[in-house]
Design a protein that fits this description.
CATH class: Alpha Beta
CATH architecture: Alpha-Beta Barrel
Order of helices and strands: EHHHEHEHEEEEHH
Shape: globular
Number of strands: 7
Strand order of the largest sheet: 4-3-2-1-5-6-7
Number of helices: 7
Structural class: alpha/beta
Strand content: 15-25%
């Protein structure tokens, strides 16, 4: 799986209330959640991104609540992958469960707003096409890659285990 997109850069400790404000948690409609993604810290975010764009952040991305609303909002507005120095563990699991690819790497400071990245999950390589730099990241184990490519855990279970 190869993903290519433009970077939207955020800092450390982006919490789930930053990603989707609590006042919108009365719905699980992915389009409604997507329309409010990041609006408390970047009001026009959902209107400015294009399908396939990439979020890059610092440490502890997705800290806060355990709700799946945050990764659903991100995926719903068209973000193809989130790259951060580290993720809150429950956000990490929720992202995988809904099929949102995420990458942990210590090199997020070398990526700038607007850079174009190409990410190859099969080889574990990331190329910053804007700067001409290449880096690597730890590839997912095969079963996690299959879950993401299936669109999430429930889809993977249906594809692989329910006959």
């Amino acid at each position: 799986m190869v993903i290519k997109g433009k970077v939207w850069k955020f800092g450390d400790h982006i919490n789930t209330d930053d990603i989707i404000a609590a006042r919108y948690l009365n719905t699980t409609d992915i389009k409604e959640l997507a329309s409010h993604c990041m609006e408390t810290i970047f009001p026009d975010f959902s209107r400015k991104i294009e399908k396939g764009d990439i979020i890059v952040a610092g440490e502890n991305f997705g800290c806060g609540s355990s709700r799946e609303h945050a990764p659903l909002a991100i995926k719903g507005c068209g973000i193809s992958v989130v790259i951060a120095k580290s993720f809150a563990r429950i956000f990490f699991r929720n992202a995988i469960n809904i099929g949102l690819p995420i990458i942990e790497t210590p090199f997020t400071e070398q990526i700038s707003q607007g850079d174009i990245l190409e990410i190859d999950f099969d080889t574990g390589t990331m190329v910053n096409l804007t700067r001409g730099e290449t880096g690597t990241f730890m590839k997912y184990p095969d079963f996690l890659q299959q879950i993401i490519e299936s669109g999430g855990l429930m889809s993977w279970v249906k594809e692989k285990h329910i006959r």
